[in-house]
Amino acid sequence: MPTSTNAKTSIGCSLDLKISDVYTPIAEVTDLRGPRISRGTHDVTHLDSPYWNGVSGTRMAEFIGSSIVVGEDVTIDGNFTAAEHTTAANCLADEFAKVDPSDWRITFVSTVTTYGKTYATFDGILTSFEPSAQKANPQQFSATIKVTGAVAFADAIA
Length: 158
What we know:
Shape: elongated
Strand order of the largest sheet: 2-1-7-8-9-6-3
Strand content: over 45%
């Protein structure tokens, strides 16, 4: 018998920047993508490979995983609001003065965890911030964060 889905809407997800040991939400994010975690492979087929020497009747290559690449970008879009300007935009602008990575956290809404949230925490460097204002459209912004090091996924504990 089919089971119903555990899929959740993205409402309630957030991107937070750690400021003075407190995660501060980047206000009014409308789109959040990343971090992308990827891995390459190496072909390690050799002359005695069990699938290459014809034992199986078909020649197939053998592969092993290479280094995990977590340095893919996190990209965000949002509404550029007064509240955002006094907190997040100023914080994002301050990020350009930093050489070292900052602590970031993405909150995902979940139905299967005790507290209803899963966190992805990572270190990252803000590489772009672009506000925009177009005739008859809301003021918006786009930003890109370059992930450095590992991304840790964990369920909220409180």
